[in-house]
Design a protein that fits this description.
Layout: H1 6-31, H2 51-54, E1 62-67, E2 83-84, H3 85-97, E3 100-106, E4 114-115, H4 123-129, H5 132-139, E5 142-143, E6 154-157, H6 163-166, H7 171-182, E7 186-190, E8 213-214, H8 219-225, H9 229-232, H10 237-243, E9 247-248, E10 258-261, E11 264-267, H11 273-283, H12 295-309, H13 311-325, H14 331-343, H15 347-366
Parallel strand pairs: 1-3, 1-6, 2-4, 3-5, 6-7, 7-11, 8-9
Antiparallel strand pairs: 10-11
Helix pairs in contact: 3-11, 12-13, 12-14, 13-15, 14-15
Length: 367
């Protein structure tokens, strides 16, 4: 039959060859990801095992309030939501390691829903889950209406898509922000956390965000993950911040980006949390305690270098990190960014980042 239809024959051969190539590429791509047995198991790590949390901790410098969402679903969509664990845990430990006590509040109080992304969890995040004091605070959050703003040196609004639903209209949250900001205390927010800022008016009648440079989860980041976001959320965060007079400071997708406008500090996404929390400490008048960067942060630095300076500089940085600085790079994050490029239809960037992932594996094994 195929002899009678040569076009069909060669089409089938071409299709079979393509499938073999795709399968082979998929197998090779998965080989770039560290196997489970190659990864360090952090699930049982305790806070007492982390020198950053136990050594050279300054004396009590005051209290910081962390606020998380109480929302458990994204409006009427039925999609599950909550606060992002990594955005709370990392900031919580930065504040604690720098001498601050941290209280945790939420609009409704009690135990809010937490979102845990297993692929993004590091040793500090697992330590937070194993920290009996921290867990007691997350299971018994203080209702924001019971908060006395004057008790705190700063407030930090944790992200999580639920923040888009119960932060913006909450009058107690607006009061906390207004009183701390006007007292020259620090207001911080990360990812969707800046939703808390969108309806805050100062005593002089001016909107808090007017002419302020801020960062938050971008439209591009939101719509790539949830194409129907405009119909699910009450607004897109970037649009709302800009509508209220803010100058939106947009960085590369899913990479670290913060904005520091005096005592207002905002971050674009979860990967901005470490730097944002340390910038808040700095704004409170203290030099942040030294902290070794995590493998994830090292990967972010490599990706930023790739974005700004190209593949050659990124590869040089990878070699420097492994051979000179003797630090680890979370290459899974680089691989994820290659998939993001594929989702965007940017095939050149996809292959560039796959190559960077492969190079990272090669240098790691050589080191």
């Amino acid at each position: 039959m195929l002899k009678k239809y040569p076009v069909l024959k060669w089409s089938l051969i071409s299709l079979a060859s393509l499938l073999v190539l795709l399968f082979g590429f998929g197998v090779w791509f998965m080989s770039l990801i560290p196997k489970k047995e190659e990864q360090i198991d952090h699930t049982k790590v305790e806070p007492s095992e982390l020198p950053y949390l136990t050594q050279n901790v300054p004396n009590h410098r005051g209290r910081i309030l962390a606020v998380v969402t109480s929302a458990k679903t994204m409006g009427t969509s039925g999609k599950i939501t909550g606060y992002e664990l990594t955005e709370l845990s990392r900031a919580y430990y930065v504040f604690q390691a720098n001498g601050f006590e941290v209280d945790i509040a939420s609009p409704q109080g009690g135990e809010p829903k937490v979102i845990i992304d297993d692929e993004d969890m590091g040793e500090f995040d697992f330590a937070f889950l194993n920290d009996s004091v921290a867990q007691n605070k997350t299971k018994n959050t203080i209702p924001v209406e019971d908060i006395f703003p004057s008790d705190y040196q700063a407030v930090f609004f944790v992200g999580g898509k639920g923040a888009m639903f119960d932060f913006p209209e909450n009058k107690a949250i607006q009061t906390i922000i207004r009183e701390l900001y006007q007292s020259n205390k620090v207001v911080g927010a990360v990812c969707h956390g800046p939703a808390a800022l969108v309806n805050v008016t100062l005593d002089n009648g001016q909107h808090l965000l007017e002419n302020k440079t801020v960062s938050g989860f971008t439209n591009k980041e939101e719509l790539l993950l949830i194409p129907e976001a405009k119909t699910i959320f009450p607004f897109l965060l970037q649009d709302k911040l800009e509508a209220q007079g803010a100058q939106f400071n947009e960085g590369a997708m899913y990479l670290e980006q913060i904005s520091h406008e005096k005592n207002l500090v905002t971050g674009q996404n979860p990967w901005s949390t470490w730097k944002l929390a340390e910038t808040m400490v700095q704004e409170m008048g203290y030099t942040p305690k030294y902290r070794a960067l995590t493998p994830e942060e090292n990967a972010v630095e490599v990706l930023v270098t790739y974005e700004t300076s190209g593949s050659r500089k990124a590869k040089a940085l990878i070699e420097q990190m492994y051979t000179e600085e003797k630090v680890e790079i979370e290459r899974v994050l680089i691989a994820k960014h290659s998939l993001i490029a594929a989702m965007q239809g940017n095939i050149g960037r996809f292959f560039g980042l796959v190559g960077l992932t492969s190079y990272t594996k090669k240098i790691a094994q050589k080191g």
